[in-house]
Amino acid sequence: MENSYIYPGDGASHTRTTFQFVVFRPSIEEILEGVVLSASSSGLQVSLGFFSGIFIKPENMVAGSYYDETEKVWIWNYQEEHKLFMDVGQKIRLRVISESFVDTTPSGPQLAAEHQAAVAAAAAGSVVAVAKDPFSEVHPYTIYGSTDGSGLGMISWWAEDEDEDVKDEANEGQEDSQSEHLEST
Amino acid sequence: MEVLNSNVALLSNYEVLEVLHEVRSAQDSEGSKKSVSKLRTNLANITYDVEKYLQGTACSSQSPEVIRNFLIATRSLKITKIEKLQILNLRPTSIVELQLILEEVEERFSEEEMQEMTNLIQELLPPTSASPQAEPQPTS
């Protein structure tokens, strides 16, 4: 920090400071391990506890993945007999494929528009409780990931000895997820 | 505000954890002055969340000696700095996981070399206390 100055016409004191930030910013192609936060038809949201703006779009999942609307869960149809679930709350490993920075500081016209919308909603007397799709919200920093590749996806799929073939690992993972599935319903 | 240098250094998870410990001890020693603590709640929140995440990863059981030994042992291997960083942060336990981190792995290393690296990693980097390796069987 340098010395403080008082500028004429302004009562506050100004101090020139230099500081260092520790930032969280994974590089592209970097591998991250987190927890599935939510699932919707637009994809999966993954959280690291301190940061939840990580999304996996359907086109970046393993081929054969689909969204089950009734159970609200993403499923990887690995083989006809072996469906692997991507359950909320379970650990997942993904590769960062892109990031997006959006300046979300409200500007003048935007503030006015939001205010008008709020007034209109209040006047209509309707309490709208819409489950917001996290994908449609705008976040200042978003990471897009892929689970398409060996070793990516739910950690339980790959946790066994890698000498065993993926079928056995898939079996373990499926049984684990299924028992958790039963507990949650 | 002006950015002087946008990329001073890459920090490993362990180094971030150390920084957070320092922040936390500075907070604790300051005591609880009401006006200060209001401003500091955001800092306290983010410090807590990041620490909680890092405690569940491999860096929670690392120390400067562990990292130094690892860097010395891997100096002879042809892997880049950022690959070493990811290995430190993720502690891959299988060849599949290692292949995710290393680029063009088929051309650079043979399977035996990769198995050797996996063994080296397991030897030099201690597992997290919450690592699934600690359990002999996955619990259902």
UniProtKB/TrEMBL annotation, chain A:
<feature type="region of interest" description="Disordered">
    <location>
        <begin position="159"/>
        <end position="185"/>
    </location>
</feature>
<feature type="compositionally biased region" description="Acidic residues">
    <location>
        <begin position="159"/>
        <end position="177"/>
    </location>
</feature>
<dbReference type="InterPro" id="IPR013238">
    <property type="entry name" value="RNA_pol_III_Rbc25"/>
</dbReference>
<dbReference type="InterPro" id="IPR012340">
    <property type="entry name" value="NA-bd_OB-fold"/>
</dbReference>
<dbReference type="InterPro" id="IPR045113">
    <property type="entry name" value="Rpb7-like"/>
</dbReference>
<comment type="similarity">
    <text>Belongs to the eukaryotic RPB7/RPC8 RNA polymerase subunit family.</text>
</comment>
<protein>
    <submittedName>
        <fullName>DNA-directed RNA polymerase III subunit RPC8 isoform X2</fullName>
    </submittedName>
</protein>
<keyword id="KW-0804">Transcription</keyword>
<dbReference type="GO" id="GO:0005666">
    <property type="term" value="C:RNA polymerase III complex"/>
</dbReference>
<dbReference type="GO" id="GO:0006384">
    <property type="term" value="P:transcription initiation at RNA polymerase III promoter"/>
</dbReference>
<keyword id="KW-0240">DNA-directed RNA polymerase</keyword>
<feature type="domain" description="RNA polymerase III subunit Rpc25">
    <location>
        <begin position="30"/>
        <end position="158"/>
    </location>
</feature>
<dbReference type="Pfam" id="PF08292">
    <property type="entry name" value="RNA_pol_Rbc25"/>
</dbReference>
From TrEMBL, chain B:
<keyword id="KW-0472">Membrane</keyword>
<feature type="domain" description="RNA polymerase Rpb4/RPC9 core">
    <location>
        <begin position="1"/>
        <end position="128"/>
    </location>
</feature>
<dbReference type="GO" id="GO:0006384">
    <property type="term" value="P:transcription initiation at RNA polymerase III promoter"/>
</dbReference>
<dbReference type="GO" id="GO:0000166">
    <property type="term" value="F:nucleotide binding"/>
</dbReference>
<dbReference type="Pfam" id="PF03874">
    <property type="entry name" value="RNA_pol_Rpb4"/>
</dbReference>
<comment type="subunit">
    <text>Component of the RNA polymerase III complex consisting of 17 subunits: a ten-subunit horseshoe-shaped catalytic core composed of POLR3A/RPC1, POLR3B/RPC2, POLR1C/RPAC1, POLR1D/RPAC2, POLR3K/RPC10, POLR2E/RPABC1, POLR2F/RPABC2, POLR2H/RPABC3, POLR2K/RPABC4 and POLR2L/RPABC5; a mobile stalk composed of two subunits POLR3H/RPC8 and CRCP/RPC9, protruding from the core and functioning primarily in transcription initiation; and additional subunits homologous to general transcription factors of the RNA polymerase II machinery, POLR3C/RPC3-POLR3F/RPC6-POLR3G/RPC7 heterotrimer required for transcription initiation and POLR3D/RPC4-POLR3E/RPC5 heterodimer involved in both transcription initiation and termination.</text>
</comment>
<comment type="similarity">
    <text>Belongs to the eukaryotic RPC9 RNA polymerase subunit family.</text>
</comment>
<dbReference type="InterPro" id="IPR038324">
    <property type="entry name" value="Rpb4/RPC9_sf"/>
</dbReference>
<dbReference type="InterPro" id="IPR038846">
    <property type="entry name" value="RPC9"/>
</dbReference>
<protein>
    <recommendedName>
        <fullName>DNA-directed RNA polymerase III subunit RPC9</fullName>
    </recommendedName>
</protein>
<dbReference type="InterPro" id="IPR006590">
    <property type="entry name" value="RNA_pol_Rpb4/RPC9_core"/>
</dbReference>
<comment type="function">
    <text>DNA-dependent RNA polymerase catalyzes the transcription of DNA into RNA using the four ribonucleoside triphosphates as substrates. Specific peripheric component of RNA polymerase III (Pol III) which synthesizes small non-coding RNAs including 5S rRNA, snRNAs, tRNAs and miRNAs from at least 500 distinct genomic loci. With POLR3H/RPC8 forms a mobile stalk that protrudes from Pol III core and functions primarily in transcription initiation. Pol III plays a key role in sensing and limiting infection by intracellular bacteria and DNA viruses.</text>
</comment>
<dbReference type="InterPro" id="IPR005574">
    <property type="entry name" value="Rpb4/RPC9"/>
</dbReference>
<dbReference type="InterPro" id="IPR010997">
    <property type="entry name" value="HRDC-like_sf"/>
</dbReference>
<keyword id="KW-0804">Transcription</keyword>
<keyword id="KW-0240">DNA-directed RNA polymerase</keyword>
<keyword id="KW-1003">Cell membrane</keyword>
<keyword id="KW-0539">Nucleus</keyword>
<dbReference type="GO" id="GO:0005666">
    <property type="term" value="C:RNA polymerase III complex"/>
</dbReference>
<comment type="function">
    <text>Accessory protein for the calcitonin gene-related peptide (CGRP) receptor. It modulates CGRP responsiveness in a variety of tissues.</text>
</comment>
<dbReference type="GO" id="GO:0005886">
    <property type="term" value="C:plasma membrane"/>
</dbReference>
